[in-house]
Amino acid sequence: MNFDLTDIKEAHLKVKSGADFPVYIKDLKKLGVRTYDTYVRDGHSIFFGDEAYQVESERKYTPLTIARISDKERFKHFLKSHQRGQTDYPVFCQNAANTGVEKWTADISSMTCKYYDKAGDIMLEEQIRTP
Predict the structure, then answer these.
(1) Are 14 and 88 in contact (CB under 8 A)?
(2) What is the pLDDT of residue 21?
(3) Most CB atoms within 10 A, among 93, 95, 109, 127?
(4) SS3 124
């Protein structure tokens, strides 16, 4: 099954905060997305499906500066706030940039999300729990 950016944008329209992330993941799974990478610098994502299929989104905002030194504990605090619905996506992305997150990878097959710093090291790995 091949998805397109229109399908993904439609699923993303339902996301108002991090609290909506699990439903978004379920919707992407139904579309056939296996993994995706989101780059904090400008918000673009690359979505991967079966048989090397992929689509790339456009940038979402003016480029952010990613902190050179990562702060895992501060990032965890911001992530938890976002997951509770206390921040919107732009604020979360700015907080991620300020704490050194370069990108995150959501692996829908293993239901994990990994957050990486500029060196490519994993800052945090979480299980994705869907309703």
Answers:
(1) no
(2) 83
(3) 93
(4) strand
